[in-house]
Protein: (2Fe-2S)-binding protein
Organism: Streptomyces bottropensis
Amino acid sequence: MSSELPDSADSPPAGASGPASGPSRRTVIATGVAVGGVVVAGGAFLAGAEEAAAEGAAPSSRVSLTVNGTRRTVTVDNRTSLLDLLREHLDLTGSKKGCDAGACGACTVLVDGQRVNSCLTLAVRLEGAEVTTIEGLADGDTLHPLQQAFVDEDAFQCGYCTPGQIMSGVGCIQEGHTSSPEEIREYMSGNVCRCGCYVKIVRAVEQTATRK
């Protein structure tokens, strides 16, 4: 049975009494037009919002730097940290994201030979810089002396902080802050080891500095 209302339902006789028989076709059509207008207007509003969002996108910059001996040029959001550049753009995941606030040292790398917390360093400020990460220390299959010392001294447990510890240790040795275990501890104090391997870490750095 058809659910369509007869044409006569459009205009009930004048003076007719009794309960309404439901919305007329004219009412349904008018309502549909109104709803359609809202949908169209809503679509236009969403399109405008997307366009506005695109116009308000964060600015990006092109930066060229040398990472582990290889020249790399990338375009990044100006807010991108060196750590995120390394991990997300260059697929160098050895540097770890721990606190992301410069308090744990897990992200330590060398920039122009100096230790930095890569999570606090803006990538766009490193135009022309030379960056060394944990992936760039070994010479082929031959470990860097400090990497080997960490193995020899069993200076790690979970290993999450180890890349940052090693990079900081390399910087500490290059800076000449290895005259005593106390000095090493002082200049390595920015690197946190949640497993508590500090004694062995200091020993590894001391051993490597002595052999240098």
Q: What stands out?
A: The longest helix spans residues 25-55.
